[in-house]
């Protein structure tokens, strides 16, 4: 309980950087670009760094403002221009520059493949378009420069941890044994997160819990998509017809989960912007629980792959 309260305090003390403030923010084309770059902008905004989307030499870039008035440019390869869609390049290049000091130019990260076969590849080239190593490299360098408004480290982030086993859990920790059911530590962890959401005292606290689900790199939906994708690859190893059919179903599930994350990518910001109101006193004659509204119909699943 004390750890949960400390995590909630940390989340309130280190708010995510606001969205950009310009008229393009309300334009559908810009919102689509922002969605496609959320796996880059959200981790950086969680560190207090304002981000924006702009157009570079030949592709869209992420511009990150730093506390010393310098800025980062995070982009795909610009020359020659990338043919991949925005937000999913073959590699990332991150540089630090200053508008008033032309001598300040530093390459923090470069995973873009080189067209020069004789050139020595940078170590990060093996990561390609992966976002996680890029964010870690930016973290490391900005921490050295003292330019992180606040740091988000794995041991400090309010991550969901599996519930500690109780005597009841310990009594049934061997699956397949008579009178001992399986342990669902991940379901228990999500149930605990739901309990915390139900007991959240403000919309800011609720937004911090939504962050655990919707963060595009380490959030639950992102990792669940990775899980189903890995399960699909495992099914293919059987080299049987049903294994391939199952792999397609699991790949579809991974795509639907990722699409859900994209649809809800601004839900955290919208929740944080809400104003909490004191609950109105309930009349004695009011029912204890109002009937719930019927659920909205979910969009139909995409057609399955065919071999």
Average pLDDT: 76
| Terminal-residue CA separation | 51 Å
Strand order of the largest sheet: 1-2-3-4-5
- Return residue spans where pLDDT drops below 50 for at least 5 consecutive residues: 1-13, 154-181, 282-304
> What is the helical fraction, as a range of percent?
25-40%
Got a strand count? Answer: 5
Largest sheet: 5 strands, antiparallel
Shape: globular
The value of Rg in angstroms is 23 Å
Q: Return the structural class.
A: alpha+beta
Number of helices: 10
- The fraction of residues assigned to DSSP E strands is 5-15%
> N-to-C SSE series?
HHHEEEEEHHHHHHH
Brief rundown of the structure:
This protein is of the alpha+beta class and 307 residues long. It has helices at residues 2-13, 28-36, 38-46, 131-145, 167-170, 185-198, 203-214, 220-236, 241-263, 267-273, and strands at 51-55, 60-65, 71-75, 93-97, 105-110. Helix 7 runs antiparallel to helix 10 and helix 8 (220-236) runs antiparallel to helix 9.
What topology emerges from the helices and strands here?
Elements: H1 2-13, H2 28-36, H3 38-46, E1 51-55, E2 60-65, E3 71-75, E4 93-97, E5 105-110, H4 131-145, H5 167-170, H6 185-198, H7 203-214, H8 220-236, H9 241-263, H10 267-273
Antiparallel strand pairs: 1-2, 2-3, 3-4, 4-5
Helix pairs in contact: 7-10, 8-9
What can you tell me about this protein's structure?
With 307 residues, the chain is α+β, with helices and mostly antiparallel strands. 40% of the residues lie in helices and 9% in strands. Strands 1-2-3-4-5 form a 5-stranded antiparallel beta sheet. It is globular, with a radius of gyration of 23 Å. The chain starts with a helix and ends in a 34-residue tail after the last helix.
